[in-house]
Amino acid sequence: MQTLLPVLLALIAGLCVAVQAPTNAMLARSTGSLWLAASVSFVGGTTLVIAAWALIDRTPLSAVRQAPPWAWAGGLYGAFFVAAVAFAAPRLGLAFTLTLTIGAQLTAAVLFDHLGVLGLDRSPVSAGRLLGVALILGGVLLVRR
């Protein structure tokens, strides 16, 4: 049961990414502005996250001072992701765009786990992990064809 909730949330998050890309792409196409669409997306997301923090969590805002400076950059990566995928999805197709991003994510994840960067516990590269990434990258090529 302890692993069921994180697995379920990860699966739902994956579905949300698949829906987010065409939603933001449509907003960009409708408005004629990728940047306006990304901004609207982030305003909506920020509103939801702030409401959840205020209603559920209530950790003091001063707690963010304890985070290392690099930890403040997460929103920048998310903003780039949202804009890049909204731009790429209508041009490359949703499946190819998302398989590219998943391939890049898994490659980076295996490397980051191996090196223990960004505060992660070290998890050495194994033959199984390399094979898994190779299969995903092969899937990127198959989806493209």
Automatic annotation (TrEMBL):
UniProt keyword Transferase present: no
Entry GO terms, CC: plasma membrane
Annotated TM spans: 34-56, 68-88, 94-112, 124-143
Pfam families the record matches: DMT_YdcZ (PF04657)
Stored InterPro entries: YdcZ
Keyword list, A-Z: Membrane, Transmembrane, Transmembrane helix
Keyword Membrane in record: yes
Protein name per its UniProtKB record: Uncharacterized protein
Source taxonomy: Bacteria, Pseudomonadati, Pseudomonadota, Alphaproteobacteria, Sphingomonadales
